[in-house]
Design goal:
Length: 190
């Protein structure tokens, strides 16, 4: 029986299966055939719903984010960062880090993946993140002309990449919380 719309539950199942496959085999080895087999779907359904592998992967990653950053407003930037960290546990953070490391490699040889990630995941995240930082400027916590403002995402992504390389340790709440307090907030004058 052909369905034109997927239920939210079915869509969530599909996205979770895509992320599981990504963790298992990586982006390059992930195929629409494998997703179809894993999810008991047809390839035609997958292509009709998502159009392409890069779009499916980007939307699966986007779906995996529980709350948009723009919705977080605790009244202080430090509180906002802590609230962002509380959205996920250490186990999920480790899984997400592994996923991002694999995708970081894949975007070098797949410009269509990079484009889909930028449009569907990175741009919305950056917009929400900018809103959090803008509120901190409006509250007077950060000077509007602070050059570190536009480097906060780079600092945070750097933490995710650097810790496993330098310390052979996964990124966890304690590390990120300490990193925010020792590096990010001081760079913003807080």
């Amino acid at each position: 029986m052909a369905r034109s719309r997927l239920t939210p539950e079915r869509e969530s199942e599909l996205y979770e299966a895509v992320l599981d496959l990504l963790r298992e085999v990586g982006y390059d080895a992930l195929t629409m055939d494998a997703v179809a087999a894993r999810t008991h779907s047809s390839k035609a359904t997958l292509y009709r719903q998502w159009g392409s592998k890069p779009e499916l992967v980007a939307k699966a990653l986007r779906h995996n984010k529980p709350v948009g950053f723009a919705e977080i407003d605790t009244g202080t930037l430090r509180g906002d960062f802590q609230a962002m960290l509380e959205q996920t546990d250490d186990c999920q953070m480790e899984k997400d880090s592994a996923l991002m490391r694999g995708l970081a490699h894949a975007v070098h040889t797949n410009p269509d993946l990079l484009q889909a990630l930028r449009e569907l995941l990175i741009a919305p995240e950056m917009t929400g993140f900018d809103e959090v930082l803008e509120r901190a400027v409006e509250r007077g916590e950060i000077r509007a002309d602070n050059p570190a403002l536009k480097l906060v995402p780079h600092m945070l992504i750097g933490a995710f990449v650097a810790r496993p390389l330098i310390e052979d340790q996964p990124v966890d709440h304690d590390f990120l919380s300490n990193y925010v307090d020792a590096v990010v907030l001081p760079s913003l004058g807080i």
